[in-house]
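debug: dumping io for the single-chain case to check the tokenizer round-trip. Nothing else runs in this session.
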Amino acid sequence: MQKVSEQIRKRIMEDNQFSLDIASMLGILQVSVKHLARRNSTKLTQYVLVQFYKEQGYKESEIFEK
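debug: decoded output
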């Protein structure tokens, strides 16, 4: 199973609005999103989130770990 890149995880930890938007899409608390990022959870690769990352300007090659 693929996981999101370090670049995405770092932005989740540092960008309040970015992590808040993800929390809203998943229906969970913002702090929970940050925990998912710390654990490098595959939940951060859900289709709706990948589309969100693309809307934020990330290319497919920047979204997933290599």
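debug: round-trip ok. Residues 6-63 form one domain.
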